[in-house]
Amino acid sequence: QKDEDIKESHLQLDSKKSISRQQTNKTQSNLAGFFGITINKSAKFHGEAKHSDFPDSKVNIWHWNINGLSAVINKGMLQKFMEEAKPDIVCFNEIKTDLDKISSAKLHQSLPEGYEQYWNCSKTKKGYAGTGIVTRIKPISVEFDIGIDKHDDEGRVITAEFKDFTLVSVYVPNSGDDLRRLDYRTQEWDKDFFDYLDKIRTEKQKPLILTGDLNVARNELDIFDVKGKEKVACYTPQERASFQTFIDKGYVDTFRHLYPEKREYTYFSARTNAKASNKGWRIDYFMLHKDDLDMVVDNRIHKDFNGSDHVPIELEIDLTKKNK
Amino acid sequence: QKDEDIKESHLQLDSKKSISRQQTNKTQSNLAGFFGITINKSAKFHGEAKHSDFPDSKVNIWHWNINGLSAVINKGMLQKFMEEAKPDIVCFNEIKTDLDKISSAKLHQSLPEGYEQYWNCSKTKKGYAGTGIVTRIKPISVEFDIGIDKHDDEGRVITAEFKDFTLVSVYVPNSGDDLRRLDYRTQEWDKDFFDYLDKIRTEKQKPLILTGDLNVARNELDIFDVKGKEKVACYTPQERASFQTFIDKGYVDTFRHLYPEKREYTYFSARTNAKASNKGWRIDYFMLHKDDLDMVVDNRIHKDFNGSDHVPIELEIDLTKKNK
DNA sequence: CATCTGATG
DNA sequence: CATCAGATG
Which residue numbers mark the site Important for catalytic activity (chains A, B) (predicted)? Predict the structure, then answer.
């Protein structure tokens, strides 16, 4: 499978350029970054970041669970999002596709000039999960997945290192309608993933910004009605307790930190026309370690943006306020 | 599986009514007909025929390949069709569903009062093939399939006997994009099905009216452009030759018989916006034996009716002109 | 390109 | 209810 990916890259690259066959599909080196591509199935979608470093001290980072890349492109909502949000960096969840399935012309049309793209697609189940990072600031490096085979099949993590911070985009496994994956999620995934975050933060020696659909509502304030939700995925005691262990490690839910009382949701089930009646859940987050919070300016939830069952969230940071 | 079907019937019938467990799911007896239901998975959809015999000497029989019963219902096109066509009897092809999947309320709403319904769903592949007959004249008997196991899995045939004729509704197996089923279609299905028709006509000793998507275009006149079509399903030499053997047995393509020069199509691929440019095929037919043709008044192709990739066709007959 | 199913959320 | 894949036409 690795061979296949690399072959695809070769096909798409100009013939004089080349990527070493030794390169794994898990690590995005400076070399590949220089070509504006990733190795992991997205070689066909070029793009060159406008900036090699942050042009401004203010940076806005967005996260959006798009519930299908194909759908948001075809509805014109990806283009609309990029034009209106003008993100410096945006992390996508649930792309739900292999990139071979996406028309490269349509994707190109949806993304303004000056962005480069990194996509991590599910290797096993097709049309499932998957993440992406689109950025106009060139990352120093990009890594896919967390280096533990049993967690690395579904394209759930992309880690992009920039000069001033490391950004981790995650789509946490949902426990399932019947909670069939609750044990895997809380006892295996969460533990290993939280360890991965600690490891990255220690290794890189710079602030870590985590964002994504964490598939857990933290508290009563984060769900429209707790009644009967203790046996519903994203609000089981197990998931909430597991999330609490992460918070106990020192990581801070920036939205709740900034707005201790605010009731705003990021996800509205399509099953019950939930958005119109504001029956939502807050399950998409930005999380920073408490020692790295100084640079956080704001964290907004953009409820009015349509196109998915999740709405986009935005973190604004100020690099001049970074804790040294 | 038979047990299951019968159990379903029981559930839906008034408790004082009952159907013998001995009854097979292949034969619709007078008893079940009396309840306005069929045994074959459609028990939940009642309905009572308005007429127990032909109220008029003129009878109009329609056939329409609807490309998905669910879709035509949801688009409102089934209701529109029933209201505009006012068929005495209509045969549907490609219902593409199990009736459990259809909202019985929606189906009820789409069909005017006074019709009873017979549905033959694919037993193996779900969402595939399937036929139906909806009639406001109560049939004397209704049979499903042709009594040969290898042909009877996909719900392709319903035979309804009326006082003055026997009606066979068929959805002939398509040979497939890659012709993978061409041999089955021409060497197994066609042979056995044509024999079945002869048998029915002999046994019933009354005119046989065959209608359906026969998945073959008879001649150059029946296809918008023959170029390259010799290797395309519905126009291979094998399919056309097989169809010719049927014609050689004495069965007459009523449309071509009435209109020897007319170029009208019944199917327009959705793949190329074919309907707007009239790039169609004539693959839906009414066929009667040459000895039974006297009662045929007209056979119309209703090109302007939308809702499917096929258009409805109509046979008008006059029972007073029946050959004795 | 349009239908259906089945998995998933 | 809405996404995607894959089968089928």
Answer: 284
Protein CA at A324 to nucleotide C1' at D1, angstroms:
48
Q: Which nucleotide has the least CA–C1' distance to A269?
A: D1
- What does the buried/exposed string (b/e) look like for B113-142 if buried means 16 or more CB atoms within 10 Å of the residue's CB? eebbbbbbbbbeeeeebbbbbbbbbbbebb
The two three-digit tokens of residue A310, written as one number:
């999740």
Least confident of A34-43, A253-262, B50-59: A34-43
Residue B68 Cβ under 7 A from any strand C atom: yes
- Compute the distance between CA of residue B120 and CA of residue B129 in angstroms, rounded to an integer: 9
Q: In sequence order, which residues have a C-beta less than 8 Å from that of residue B204 and are 6 or more positions away? A: B161, B166
Count of CB atoms situated within 10 Å of the CB of B195: 13
Structure tokens at A75: 């509805």
A281 contacts A224 by C-beta, under 8 angstroms? yes
With contact defined as beta carbons under 8 Å apart, do B288 and B182 qualify? Answer: no
Residue predicted with more confidence, A26 or A217: A217
Strand D at less than 7 A from CB of B173: yes
Give per-residue pLDDT as tens, A179-227.
999 999 999 999 999 999 999 999 999 999 999 999 999 999 999 999 9
Calpha distance B117→B45 (Å, rounded): 7
- Is B14 annotated as contributing to ligand binding? no
- Whether the CB-CB separation of A41 and A98 falls below 8 Å is answered with yes
Query: What is the Cα–Cα distance from A113 to B70, expressed in whole angstroms?
Result: 43
Active-site residue list of B: 171, 213, 310
CA distance B48 to B50: 6
Q: Is the CB of B324 under 7 A from strand C?
A: no
> Protein A67 CA to nucleic acid C9 C1', in Å?
9
Tokens of B218: 């008879």
Catalytic hit among A5, A88, A213, A284: A213
Cβ of A163 less than 7 A from strand D: no
Any strand C atom closer than 7 Å to B276 CB: no
State which residue has its Cα closest to the C1' atom of D2: A270
Tokens of B236: 């291979």
Nearest nucleotide to A67 (CA to C1') is D3
Find out whether B215 is annotated in a ligand binding site.
yes
Q: Which amino acid is at A282?
A: R
Instruction: Among all protein residues, pick the one whose CA is nearest to the C1' atom of D6.
Output: A126
Does the annotation mark A310 as catalytic? yes
Residue B101 approaches strand C within 7 Å at CB: yes
> Is residue A151 predicted with pLDDT exceeding 50?
yes
User: Which contacts qualify for B292-298: CB closer than 8 Å, 24 or more apart?
Assistant: B292/B165, B292/B207, B292/B208, B292/B323, B293/B252, B293/B254, B293/B257, B293/B323, B294/B321, B294/B322, B294/B323, B295/B165, B295/B207, B295/B319, B295/B321, B295/B322, B295/B323, B296/B254, B296/B257, B296/B258, B297/B58, B297/B321, B298/B258
**Helix or strand (DSSP H, E) at A142:** strand A141-144
- What are the residues whose beta carbons fall under 8 Å from the beta carbon of A311, sequence distance 6 or more? A64, A265, A266, A267, A268, A301, A302, A303, A304, A305
